[in-house]
Structures are given as C-alpha cells and as structure tokens.
Give the backbone structure.
Amino acid sequence: MAVTRRLALITGASAGIGAAFAKVYAREGFDLALTARRLDRLEKLAADLSKEHNVETISIASDLAGPGAVDAILAAIAAKGRVVDVLVNNAGYGQPGLWRNTTWPDQARVIQVMLTAPLELSHKVLPGMAERKWGRILNIASLAGFSPGSRGHTTYGAIKAALIRFSQSLNVETAGTGVHCTAVCPGLTWSEFHDVNGTREALKKTPGWLWQTAEAVAQTGYRAAEQNRAIVVTGAPNKMMAGFLKLIPDPLAMQIANSATRRYRNTGESEEGG
C-alpha cells in the first residue's frame, strides 16, 4: 500500500517541547519518527498518539552525541520505506558551570547534540525535500540566542544564536522550493530541561507570567513553519524582551543579562568559594 501521509522526524521527543511537537504533528495527520535516548518513553508516547490519531509511528532510541547517530536514525527510517518530510531539531540540554570548570569532552558533547547533529540532519534531509518540492525544517533555538553572553551555560546562548542565523540563511536559500526553515525561539518553558541542568529550584522565584507551556511553544512553531517564517519568538513577553535586547547597547544588555541570570544559573562557582 502506498504511503500517503507525510512523516515528521522529531529529536528529543520523549518529553517537553519535543513531545509537544509530536502531539501537534500527529493531530495534523503526520506519521511520526520519534527519537531520544529513553526508548520506554518514546514507545509509550508513540502508542498513545497512534491510538488517538491513527498515525504510524517509528521509535528510535539514539544518543545524538554518539558517532554515526544521524546516519543510524535516517537508516532506521529508510528501512521502513519512509522519507523525512518534516524535521524538528529539538534535542538539547544545558551544561552548567563556568567554562574553565567544565571538561572539554562535556562541552564537545553539547556542541555535537545541539549544533552539529541538527546541521547534519538538515543537510542530509534537505535534498530529498527539495526534490519532492515540500519540506519543513524547524530548529528549536531560544530567546537566549538574542541575549548577550552571560556567566554559566557558556555555550548555550552561542549555540542558539548560531541556530537562529543558520535557519535564516536556509530559509533564504530554500525560497521557492516548497521547503520552509524556521528557528523557534521559546523563553522559559515548563519541561524537564531545568531539572536536568539543576536550575529548577532557583527558577521557582521567576514570575509565572514569564513561563509558557510546551504545547503553546509547539503550536506556535508549527504555525510559523507553515507560514514560512524564518524566526518566531514564542509568547508576548519573550517577543518584548527580544525586541528590547535589539535596541539597547551591548554593554548595558550584558549588565542586565548577567544581573538576571546570576539569580538562577548554576555556574558552579560555589565549589571554588567564588
């Protein structure tokens, strides 16, 4: 039987924004290829969405930091006779600590998972999308990509800024081909992200109006990709902050950002008594 539905590949799909994107695309009638490290969670989510929306699912346990992970994911999809029509590069995490206190293997892993793998996936699925004259590439960036550098999580904002600029360039390059590329830039989002990087307790002091649900982020990202918007900042407060950061001088922006992030970023300085 010929496959008539398009397939969305979502990385980091076991929880948070990735799981929310899976729900959005299933609701829109897309089959799903879900990948993350935790296979049990993937299979539970896949089974629920398959039952609720009558879509086909492929669950792929993978660590994007591992050698050959991207090729293995794409091979698993090809083995099912499928191609990638939508790519949601969502997998990511924060590496806490001052740069000098972290190890290079840990930082290399961050760069591989959050920057190299998304670019490699985009590079390898784009030719097929262009040939079929339809495709969507969504890179989950962050409001941090607009912010100046600050203490702790040293590579996080830099990587997100790179994803934003990459998405802009790819959006221009694919104009008229039927392929859309969008950088989705959420701010504070309710998910497991802050549990993993150890900032959950500190962030409880942050006003509730600054937070969004993962579902709201995913729905906004989906609409922006369909509208072929190169960048979308999710949520009104985040849009205001992104605009504000563009208007003020960098030295003032750095002062504000460092004052704000000092309250909740885990820099690891306490280990040195700093």
Q: What stands out?
A: The chain is about 50% helix and 15% strand. The domain at 7-268 is CATH 3.40.50.720 (Rossmann fold).
